[in-house]
Amino acid sequence: MFRFAEPQYLYGLLLLPVCLLLLVWTEMQVRKRLRRFGDPALLIPLTPGLSRTRERVKYAFMLVAIGLTMVMLARPQYGTHVDTTTRRGIEVVIALDVSNSMLATDVSPNRLERAKLLVSRLVDKMKDDKVGLNVFAGEAFIQLPITNDYVSAKMFLDGISPSMITSQGTDLAGAIALASKSFTQTEGVGKAIVVITDGENHEGGAEEAAAEAAKNGRAVYVLGIGSPEGAPIPTRDGYMQDRNGETVVTKLNEDMCRQVAAAGKGTYIHVDNSSVAQDKLQAALSGLSQKEMSTPVYSEYDEQFQAVALLLFLVLVAELFVSACENPFFKKFKLFRR
Fold first, then answer.
1. Can you say whether residue 87 is alpha, beta or left, with left for phi > 0 and alpha for psi between -120 and 50 degrees?
2. Which of 16, 31, 188, 285 is a good FRET partner for 169, with 20 to 30 A between their CA atoms?
3. Residue 220: left (phi > 0), alpha (psi -120 to 50), or beta?
4. How far is CA 78 from the centre of its chain?
C-alpha cells in the first residue's frame, strides 16, 4: 500500500499553477516593453545570444523541482508488512442526492451542505465500522467503495457537488440498487443503506428496489432533507425558472420517503437545522447486529523519498547547465534555435 506520511505538504503543489501564470504575465510584460523600442522582429537580431526558449526550459525545470520538493517533503512510503486486525462493527453505504434541488436553502446553509455535515459527523463517530459513499441524480455512481479508511471517506465527501453528474433528476431506485451491491460478501454483519434526498423528481421503482434490498439483508434508511413548504433553487443568474418563466420551488416529498423506508424495513428521518436527525440515525444504526471482521492493516512502511530526492537532484543539475545566454561550447549543437 502506498501512502504519504505528511500529506499536508502536497498543498504546496498549488504553487505550480501560480508560478505558471506568473510566467505568462512576465512574458506579456516583456513583449509590451519591447514594442516601446520598436518591432520585436527587428530587435531580436540585436541580441543573438539570448533565447526565450532557454528561459522557458529553465523555468520548466524549476517548476518540476518545486513539485518534486513537495512530494519529497510529504514523505512517500510503501507498506511492506501486513497484519490482520479484528474489528467488530457494521457496514453502511450512504447514497447522497446531488441533484440541483439539493442547493435549496430551506435548511442551512443548503440541503447538500447540511447532508454532507451530517455524513461527516456520522463518520466521526465510527470506530470499527465500514462505510461506502455513492452519489446520484439522474444516474447513480460509486464515489468511494466501502472501506474503514475514514480519512479518505471525508476527503471524498468534501468534493461532492451537483456538477459531478450532468444527468439531472432523482433516480432513487438506481441509487438503492447500486448501494445494495456495494457491500462486502461478509455474512452475519449488519448492513444499512442510508439514502439522503429531498425526493424531488421521483422516477419510480424506488419502493421495489428498497424491498429487494431488505430481502437481501440491507435495511434502507431514508433521510428526507428540506421542508414540505419548499424553497427556490439558486443559480448563478438568480433562481431556477421553468419554461413559463415561473420560479421553480422544490419541496420535500415526505410521503415518498416514508414509503421507501417502510419498503426497505428501515426508518424515515426528517433532517432540519437541529441535531435530532443525527441522533435518530445513530440510534437506528446502533441497533444493527455487529460481527467481528478481519481487516488487513499495514504496520511497517519503507520510506521512498530517496528516489524522489535523486530525481530532484538530476532536475536541478539539468537546470544548472541551461543558461539564458548561448554557450559558445554548445553553439554548434543548435539545441534551442532553428
1. beta
2. 285
3. beta
4. 23
CA torsion angle 165 169 173 178 (round to 10): 0
Amino acid at position 51, single letter: S
Task: Specify the pLDDT at position 324.
Answer: 62
The pTM assigned to this predicted structure is 0.64
Interatomic CA distance for residues 111 and 114, integer angstroms? 5
What would the pLDDT profile of 70-98 be if each residue is shown by its tens digit? 999 998 887 666 666 666 789 999 999 99
- Give the cell for residue 29: 510584460
Higher pLDDT, 106 or 41: 106
Domains of the chain in sequence order: 2-79+300-333 (no CATH), 91-289 (3.40.50.410)
Phi, psi (5° rounding) for residue 114? -65, -40
Bridge partners of 132, per DSSP, are 93
Higher-pLDDT residue of 337 and 33 is 33
pLDDT tens readout for residues 172-205: 999 999 999 999 888 888 999 999 998 875 678 8
DSSP string, 52-120: HHHHHHHHHHHHHHHHHHHHHHT-EEEEEEEEEEEEEE-EEEEEEE-SGGGG--SSSS-HHHHHHHHHH
SS (H, E, C) 165-218: CCCCCECHHHHHHHHHCCCCCCCCCCEEEEEEECCCCECCCHHHHHHHHHHCCE
52-73 vs 305-320: helix crossing angle, rounded to 10: 160
Contact 146, 184 (CB under 8 A): yes
Q: What is the DSSP code (8-state) at residue 132?
A: E
Collect all residues with Cβ–Cβ distance below 8 Å to 209 and sequence separation of at least 6.
172, 173, 174, 176, 177, 180
Mean pLDDT of the chain: 85
